[in-house]
Amino acid sequence: MTAQVDYLVVLCAATSGAGGELLGSDEEQLTRLLWQQVDVNNKKLGKINELVIESEDSDPADDVKDNDEDDVVDELAADENASGADCVFTAKSLEDALNTFHLQMTNEVNSAGAGTSVCLCTDGQLPIRQVIHPEAASKNILVPDCFYSFFDLRKEFRIHFASDLNTLDVETMLESLGIPAEVPAMCDSMRLLDPSATPPPEVAVQQVQMMAKIVLHLLSEPLCHTFSNPERVNEKFESGTCSKMEKVCDSTVIRARGLPWQSSDQDIARFFSGLNIAKGGAALCLNAQGRRNGEALVRFVSEEHRDLALQRHKHHMGNRYIEVYKATGEDFLKIAGGTSNEVASFLSREDQIIVRMRGLPFTATHEQVLAFFSPEDGLKDTCPVSGGRDGILFVRYPDGRPTGDAFVLFACDDHAQCALRKHKEILGRRYIELFKSTAAEVQQVLNRYSSTPLISVAPAPLLSVLPTVSLLPSPVIVRDCLRLRGLPYSATIEDILTFLGDFTHDVRPHGVHMVLNQQGRPSGDCFIQMTSAERAISASQQLHKHVMSCQHGPNSRYVEVFPCSAEEMGLVLMGGSLSHMHTHTHSRNRSGTGLSPPPCKSRRLSPPSYAFTPTPPILPAEAAAALYPPLGQVLLAPRPLHPGHAYYPSTAQLYMNYTAYYPSPPGSPTTVGYFPSPSTHSSPGGLMRMPGLTYNSKDIINAMQGYQTAMEPVSVLGSSLIGQAAAGEPPLVSLPGLMAKPSGHYLDLSLL
Asked: Taking the model in full, what pTM does it have?
């Protein structure tokens, strides 16, 4: 609107709760509207009108009116009104009140006959943005068009008089203009006692009269002000994309917490109704599992709207109260920002409803998704996808593997609601979960799968007993193992060996290691030790995504095969986990060797790392000499270290017991140090942590009797020896050498 309006309607609102600068902050219902029309061209004032809204919680038995017309609107004579208004109307509900206001205002403008354009004028933003729109949105009431634009009298006044909007009020404006303020003494006393108290009706009428005088003074010379640029209230929320390179001001972002899990960006916009949210400025947050966590980041068009949003702290969305806090632009970009051109193209279609599909078969195609929503048999509801194939976005890993998620566009909310009714219907052999989604959620899901870091850092060593010597060569990672992912849960070791085919001859004896989940069941992962890295790479290239069949079950699935190192295998089998991304030595770079969820996180099996604080040495001199050889001896005559610094000597053949709940790795992470044993042992020994055991050496010796033919002393080290409190901590047991057999040394892990 560029030209000056013909009429201004000065409006004042009151609720049953707080007033003043706290108007609308307590979610109390609107109880009173007062207004007066100002003829801008002729500089004349109309009559003062008052609209009283009866409480919707009142008892219907108190109604004594039988006339149907009187149930909606009553007009009383001015002499019967104590507030001083010229006309008084009553309404039974907010919807009736808003329609009555609009009808009376339109009739008064039409009766004047000197113009048609009209706009509201209020003292500040609160009556429109914090009272009328929020209450109407919470009650699903359609607001008349006249409430979507208004003039803020304070901002219009500040054009001519420099002042602070936060301290500006009607009395201050009257004083600056030199107009005597006719404020009742009762009003002054009420403000001194409680500035946020709701003024009585007669004081509200005086407020409207003073605002009308200010408008006339601004229109008159020498100011000759023009009311041409009103404030706007967005009628609907506009979805859109946000680039990570975009600059977002910290003073425009809030964090909303406590949202219902099924809420969408439209629900958030409805909660902040009356405030202008930036395009694509509602971003729902997801947790580590990709599900909504009840939080959202909202970006507003200005700091003023952000401050008004903070006043809605603990307002209600349905039966839940929502907490509202300040946030930063960086927080918003982490959630809503994206860099993918494919996503930007997918979300560039405006006025589209997004539905998220979760649990899709990995072989699902565009045609199957289209047929899922629009079956040809016509027996089920049809909800066409907007744009056909272009309206479907599959979420994939960077190497092109599907994740089982997809986003689908629909042209209208009716089609989207029809699609959501297909929740948990079958596509292929899997049921599909459907959720109403947002543009920010699309960005989050794509960012989650496309920016996962490489393999995580291996856990810290159990005990840092080796001295730091810079001359020691850095360990070289050799990928002489295979990792199989996606095994049928009924697959056995025999099935795996059959799957390997000719490569079975390259598997080390007892080199197949199944990975179990937290319930002790197969997780679908498996590690295989190969004789060389070359054979491991060749097997992964020839067997990748081949189908494995099971002898004892009908399941058959394609299996992904990747080469890996012994340290990565040991990291997982010891309770750690690998991330979803890792670069392999294929003919081309491969991603997507992430493991299934960590098989076990129980402390009693194998905690990922132990950190001990340094303490003064308290070991006996003999033990210290055995564990820590002199540095000069190491430098002058260094002893050969076994490759990879493994727990056990590389020459010893380890026979794994697959019936054990959680087998230990034959190859260990290179970050775990190699512990030389005292020279009295016939073969190198090591340290083992045994949680749950008592400090009785006799019981521990009895438990270790099967480890060698001739028993040697077993030392029990309390954790206090390495800087930890002894109370409640398991002992550290120094294991003797391995049992000697004609075929070599071995350690029977079934006894552990």
From this structure: 0.57
